[in-house]
Specification:
By secondary structure, the chain is α/β, with parallel strands linked by helices. The chain has eight helices and 13 strands. 33% of the residues lie in helices and 20% in strands. β1, α1 and β2 form a beta-alpha-beta unit. InterPro entries: CheY-like_superfamily (IPR011006), OmpR/PhoB-type_DNA-bd (IPR001867), Sig_transdc_resp-reg_C-effctor (IPR016032), Sig_transdc_resp-reg_receiver (IPR001789), WalR-like (IPR039420), WH-like_DNA-bd_sf (IPR036388).
């Protein structure tokens, strides 16, 4: 079976056949070629072999859970990762683990919701572009099940802040997507990097939560302000912030966030 060499590839790691088929349909309608894995070990192997652009990852897999799968694939792929869970209260715990997932979806979900979240993620700049010109193979050399994509909707990418941004001991290479504190690179996720770069690009500005959601996650996210709060919390941890006496990110109560005055100490 031939595939479009320019098509984006999504790996669906899900043991529930009905959910897996729903994701195949949803992602196919959004322009993806899809590969399927029924368990975590098969999923890790497919990530290593095929280097997909997107991974949807169920939390409760029959062999190794989604958290461990995410930890194993993060060092070998820059794919966007959507973690899927059956419980709303799992999301805070998952984000708190800093496992490298880019977004979280709770079952039961609507195809429209998943499509919107995927398109919002792909509006953010990627660090690499991958070719998918070779056939898709599952572990052992067998051809993996693949769905043909339909045309993806055109999405205008936002204009990134170019060059080098600095704020006290923080320096950000927006083109290379590298953030450093006191000369040491910070291990930021994509969302954390985008949040920090946005805040530093306008350090005197108070960034409203709604503005951050629209700029980083995309339109239609005004009801998910909790996402901003959780990712800001994780960003502060990586900056070594004391929440009672913040050095870098100040909370403007009832509005949003802004950078503290720059200091080199």
């Amino acid at each position: 079976m031939t595939t479009d060499p320019d098509a984006r590839v999504a790996l669906i790691i899900e043991d529930d056949a009905d959910v897996r088929q729903l994701l195949v349909m949803t992602l196919g309608m959004n322009g993806f070629v899809t590969i399927e894995a029924e368990n975590g070990r098969q999923g890790v192997a497919l990530v290593r072999d095929r280097q997909p652009d997107l991974v949807t990852l169920d939390l409760n897999l029959p062999d190794i859970d989604g958290v461990e799968v995410c930890r194993q694939i993060r060092p070998i792929t820059d794919a966007y990762v959507i973690m899927i869970t059956a419980r709303q209260d799992e999301i805070d715990r998952l984000i708190g683990l800093e496992i490298g997932a880019d977004d979280f979806v709770v079952k039961p979900f609507s195809p429209r919701e998943v499509g919107a979240r995927v398109n919002a993620m792909f509006r953010r700049p990627r660090t690499t572009v991958r070719s998918v010109s070779q056939p898709l193979l599952a572990p052992g050399g067998h051809t993996a099940e693949v769905s043909q994509p339909v045309a993806a909707p055109a999405v205008a990418a936002p204009e990134p802040v170019e060059g080098l941004l600095t704020h006290g001991p923080i320096s950000i290479d927006t083109e290379g997507r590298i953030a450093m504190l006191d000369g040491v690179e910070l291990p930021l996720t994509r969302i954390e990097f985008d949040l920090l770069a946005t805040l530093v690009s306008g350090p005197r500005r108070v960034w409203q939560r709604e503005t951050l959601l629209s700029r980083i996650w995309g339109d239609g996210w005004v009801n998910d302000q909790h996402l901003v709060e959780v990712h800001i919390r994780n960003l502060r941890k990586k900056l070594g912030e004391d929440t009672k006496a913040p050095r870098f990110i100040r909370t403007v109560r009832g509005v949003g966030y802004r950078m503290m005055p720059a200091s080199s100490d």
